[in-house]
Amino acid sequence: MSDYNFAYLDEQTKRMIRRAILKALAIPGYQVPFASREMPMPYGWGTGGVQLTAACLTPEDRLKVIDQGADDTTNAVSIRKFFQRTAGVAVTEATREATLIQTRHRIPETPLTEDQVLVYQVPIPEPLRFLEPRETETRKMHELEEYGLMHVKLYEDIARHGQIATSYAYPVKVEGRYVMDPSPIPKFDNPKLSGCPAIQLFGAGREQRIYALPPHTQVVSLDFDDHPFVASKPDHDCDLCGASDSYLDEVITDDRGGRMFVCSDTDFCMGRVRAGHAGRLAGQSKGAAA
Amino acid sequence: MSAPILSVRGLERRYGARIGCTGVGFDLWPGEVLGMVGESGSGKSTLLSCLAGHQRPDAGSVTYDGRDVLAMPETERRRLARTEWAYVHQHAREGLRMGVSAGANVGERLMATGARHYGRIRAQAIDWLDRVEIDETRIDDRPTAFSGGMQQRLQIARNLVTGPRLVFMDEPTGGLDVSVQARLLDLLRGLVRDMGLSVIIVTHDLAVVRLLADRLMVMKSGRVVEQGLTDQVLDDPQDAYTQLLVSSVLQV
């Protein structure tokens, strides 16, 4: 353990990342370039998020890592172990107890507080990328607030599918200025971005960008007047805990069309089960949420 | 008709030591169609892209509606370019977004200027497809599924949907066969008259300017060698180069 500097990265690198974080917090939604380091894991596994976490961690922190809402998937387990080994910080699976949460593709169901930092892993930070491949041009579009193109994508959705079919990485406008990609969280989570008391940091390692939402930032999902934004989720209750207001995963249980819906946020679901809530299949399929 | 809509003085653009265009000056009046002809490499396209703000001229001034275009901040110039100006490219695929449907192509300028009502955007797109003679059942098809002539008409619809005042056209009929060209010219002529557009049209096809342009500028080696009313220039060319140009048109 002592072979590594605290939290793996050297102090100069952390300093550089912290400067980028401060700049990102000062200009909410703006993508700050930073000199992303090579990390001991492949691109796409959260190298951006890991660098942010490393730069923010203090020995007193309690870390929670989630992947698609779950604490026990490969990505979450390996990143949690990584920081246990290189920083020796305490870890937890309970959202309420964590001071720093690194997440991939979800925002926890339990409301965050102002004592917490939420770090997102971002694959592609540029919301305009698939519409305009030139980086020089997208930068210019951000600079001049030319965001009509984002609506072209939503228009295309409605023309093709009859509704806005974008269901994750749904573009948002931050404080009426920058259009931002909220990372591939389901659009169900979009309303939680706005007015959140916690600091939200977004790190894209391969793309070398950091952006951020300071606490209580106004975040609006883009939409049309006659096709308003809807935070959609499967039309079910959780089969384990019975929650009707949490984001659900669909789990195939056999090859005869059997399926169940369970909370994607495992900590939230377990908490409810422990508190005595029960869903349709509670009891008979223990551990299926895992 | 009190003031020219576009006023150009002493415009020059150099590529290193070579001249792109130099000493170009003219006034364009509201509702007027100005043709620019000349052989390949005579500086027509350079001049047009300088006027439209795609390139920065090295000297001279461009005044649009009393405002100095070259001194404008980029924000304002780009806003002009997507509201009051339009630019029709020679190759439709340069001016279109090939990855999205025809309706989205037409709607893009509307959305860029703040339209946020899907139903109204779509209604306007249908209206404009109709005006450029594209069947409204094709609205959700991508431009890749369109013929060359349809792509060019779609590009025109996409540009004119915001009701611009000044349109730049770079060889709009280039690469189309003659019957498609004739229909496109017919369409353009109708739109120009109906909407009262001011147009600068660059072409090497004298038949196009004969049909469309009120006034003509003949360019050679980056310089304007002759300008005047279209019929006057074409029927009674004064400059030796213009005479050559007019006489080299094949008569069928």
Molecular structure report:
The complex is a heterodimer of chains A (290) and B (252). Chain A is α/β, with parallel strands linked by helices. Chain A contains 7 helices and 12 strands. Chain A has helices spanning 11-26, 47-56, 74-87, 135-143, 148-161, 190-193, 266-274; strands at 32-33, 62-67, 90-91, 100-104, 117-121, 172-174, 178-180, 199-204, 209-213, 219-221, 248-252, 259-263. In chain A, strands 1-9-8-5-4-2-3 form a 7-stranded mixed sheet. In chain A, strands 7-6-10 form a 3-stranded antiparallel sheet. In chain A, strands 11-12 form a two-stranded antiparallel ribbon. The longest helix of chain A has 16 residues, at 11-26. Chain B is globular, with a radius of gyration of 18 Å. Chain B is built from 10 helices and 10 strands. The N and C termini of chain B lie far apart (39 Å). In chain B, the strands form 2 sheets. A 6-stranded mixed sheet of chain B has the order 6-7-8-3-9-10, with helices on both faces. In chain B, strands 2-1-4-5 form a 4-stranded antiparallel sheet, with helices on one face. Helices cover 39% and strands 24% of the residues of chain B. Chain B has helices at 44-51, 74-83, 92-95, 102-112, 118-131, 148-160, 178-195, 206-212, 230-235, 240-247, and strands at 6-15, 18-28, 33-37, 59-64, 67-68, 85-88, 166-170, 198-202, 215-220, 223-229. Chain B is α/β, with parallel strands linked by helices. The chains are: A alpha/beta (290), B alpha/beta (252).
Quaternary structure classification: heterodimer
In total, the number of domains of chain B comes to: 2
Total beta-strand segments of chain A? 12
Note the gap between the termini of chain A. 30 Å
The tally of helices of chain A reads: 7
Form type of chain A: globular
Structural class by secondary-structure content of chain A? alpha/beta
Poorly predicted runs of 5 or more residues of chain A: 286-290
Number of helices of chain B: 10
